[in-house]
Each structure stands twice: as structure tokens, then as C-alpha cells.
């Protein structure tokens, strides 16, 4: 060892006597010691023994420290293995749940596909039912008159207003002919126009007479029915469902764009005419809008 070599003097000419102990504890005979063993001059046997004991204690201390370190590492490794086992169990649990979820998703997808197939096969029937419901809803409004752009006043008497309208149109009406009369909210809450007035009359004939008279009269104004304020033009029309109102706006815009002269409503059906000599086209759904291109003026 380097430490031992540095301890003894390489220049020493003294050699151990026969029967003395060497550094590694073996007896030294008459033979000369190995060249790597040297002794310091004057070093007694007691010093050698003390050195060996210190070296032994040092080695035992090192071994004890290493053993303690390895034991701690073993404990840490054991703890790490335990944690790793927990992680493995967690991963296995998640994997099992994922497999179950995947199986459940597949089952749901199959059910959704079956439902979609059923819906597709029933689409014509559903469309037919929707059309029938829309028709029934429109027929339920056959006796209704819708008054729009009528100035709204606090404390207004709508019954008096409808009587004044009847007087201007020369269509006498009695209180028993009016089932209900009220304003309805706008579909768009940001709309600043007055709320429309819905009048449910006792018969469709009375309703149709009012609308015909208003068309012959070229409309009616708020001034004519004694409503104070700036004069406003008031419109009387059939009471349409929301779907038919939307369809009516579409037809009116398209008809204006392609040059049709007349678009009106009769008994809940939207009608369009290219000019006075053309036949009227009935529009009952969006599919019927394509009919308007067949009678474009000039074609």
C-alpha cells in the first residue's frame, strides 16, 4: 500500500532479523524480505502492533460505514420496489377501467348506429308528421287577425282600437265577435317596434273580411283610428306560425330579387305571382321555393 510505503524510509539499510514479523503478519526467516517492504529506523515491534491495530480499526470502520450505507440503500430500494408495485397496481386498475370503458363505448356506438339507422328510415315519416303538425297549428289560427306596427300606449284599450279599425274599414264588429285580443312579445327582444296585437275572432269569415277591406283601403294609419302621435301605417294580416313567417320572409325576398310582382297569404298558404297574367304559385315549404324560378318574368 502507498500509505505503508510512505511510512517507511526507502533509504534504510536495516533489515528485519530472523523470526520477526513482516507487515502482512508472516514470519520472516533468514531470507531477505521482499523489495517493497521497508522499515523506518528505530521502529519498535510495539509500534508495528499499534499500527496494525489502528489499521484494523480503520478497516472495520470503513466496512461498518459501507455496510450501513448498503443497508440504507437496500431499504430505499425496497421502498422503491414497494412504490413501484403500487404504481403497477394503479396502472393495471386504469388499464382495466379503460378496457371496460372501451367495451362500453363500443356498445353505445352500436346502439347509436342502430338509432341513426332507425331515424334515417323514419325521416320521411317524421317530416310528414312535422308538416301535419305545422298545418294543424296554422289551422288553429284561422280565425286570428294579426295587427302590426300599431303604436303602443300605456293604458290603451285594444277593444276600442279594433272597433275604430272596423269603423274605418266599414266592417262593423260587436264585442261578442272578439274572443280575445292582446299584444304578444317580439321574437327578437332587441326589436324596438311595437308588439303585435293578436285578435281571435269568432269566425274565419269575419277575419277574412277585415283583411280584404284593409287591402281595398290600401292600408290604415294610426291617425285614422284616433291614436295620438306621429302617423304610423298599420298592417292587418293573417296570424302565421313562426315557421310560416320565416318562410314568408324568404319567399318575399327571393320574389323581389327575381322580379315577381305579387306575394301574399291566403288561408295560411303563401302565394306568389310573377305578374297579373301569371298563375299563382303556392309555397308550403322551403322545397317549393325552387318553383319561383320557373316563372321569372321575361323567360
Automatic annotation (TrEMBL):
Domain of life per record: Eukaryota
UniProt keyword annotations, A-Z: Coiled coil
Domain FP protein C-terminal: 242-293
UniProt xrefs under Gene3D superfamilies: L1 transposable element, RRM domain
Coiled-coil ranges (or none): 98-146
InterPro entries assigned: FP_C (IPR057251), Transposase_22 (IPR004244)
Name listed for the protein in its UniProt record: Uncharacterized protein LOC126912643
Lineage: Eukaryota, Metazoa, Ecdysozoa, Arthropoda, Hexapoda
Gene that produces this protein: LOC126912643
